[in-house]
Each structure stands twice: as C-alpha cells, then as structure tokens.
Specification:
The chain is α+β, with helices and mostly antiparallel strands. The strands form 2 sheets. A 6-stranded antiparallel beta sheet has the order 2-3-4-5-6-7.
Amino acid sequence: MYVKDEFSDQNINITMPVIIGYPILDKYLREKLVGEIISKENSEGKKSNYAQILDVSIEKSELEEFDLKVNLNLQTLTSLFKNKQVKIFFHAALQLDRELQHISLKDYEVDGKTNNWFADQLLETVVNRWMYDKLKKKMNFNLMPHIEEKVSSLNEKLENKLEAKEGVHLIGSLDKLEVSNLKAGEHELWISVTVSGTGIVELEKLEL
C-alpha cells in the first residue's frame, strides 16, 4: 500500500495502562478454587483431608514486599478440628520477565488466624505448601503466544484500514506489543502495555 510505504518512518511508541478490577479476579479464583479440598499425602501414600475452601477473594497486600493478598475462608475437616471455619491469608509477590513476557509467583507468605494455636500451626504448615503449589501453577502465565496472536490479527486489520469511527481509519503495522510493567493498586491490578510500530490516521469525512 502506497500510504504505508510513504509514511513508513512515522513511528508509534505508546504505553497504555490496562486495569483488571479485583472483583474480576475474585470471580476467576472462585471458579478455580471454591469447593476444593486441601489435603496432604504421607510417605505411605495415604491422603489426609484438612480443610475445604468455602470462599476466596483478592486484594492489595498490606505487606510492602508483596503485591496481592488472597483471602481464603476454610472449613476444617480434621477429626480434632471438624467443621470449624477459619481464615487464611496468602500474600503473593509477582514477577514479570519482560524479555520472555512471563508472569510468575516470585515469593509468598501464609498467615493463618483461628485463635487456636494448634490449629494455626497445623493449617499454616499444610496450607503453606498446598497454596504455594496451587498458586504457582495458577499464577504462571506465558504471555508471548497470546501477544503474537494479537499482533498478527491487528496487523491484518491495519493493513486493510481499521475503522476507529465513521470517517476515521487507522493504517499501519505493529512491530511489537508487550506487557512492560505490573503493579497492584488499591482496587485493581494495573498492567502497562507498550505498543510500537508505524501508522497514520486517515480522515475520509469532514464535518462542519
């Protein structure tokens, strides 16, 4: 396309914030975790059930070195502490590898408060290991395949003029689209997306 060739030096480099509200993450985690049994297997392969997840929510961690806090409402299943509802708080620090476009769990800390020392120690020990294994899998995202797919799709649309609104079209090509930063806000998770490429805006209609 002649327009693309003629304006190929018109570089675009912008960073846009994308926000994901914690209620959206709450819904996602509830679908994944509510009803799940927290258990532990001994050396002989015998499994012991310790608690069942009743509810889960997420918020910004108040601990400086962590990003998010996952709040778990549990019901105990052990013979000694049966049908007792307790709360467990899982603080998570996230890590973004910008080169690989990969988000992972960097560090964590579990805090259990049941007002019963023995129950706290038992749950904190079991849940600590269980939650780390579980969330390490759930909070391990390889973004590159999704980004490459989106760039390819957007470039196809930009090549044939992408209509932003009536009479206004975008023409160009994206060279790179990447997640450049990750931050936990008070009410939502902030993700910075950096876009670079070439492009122009073409007006096909003028209104007085």
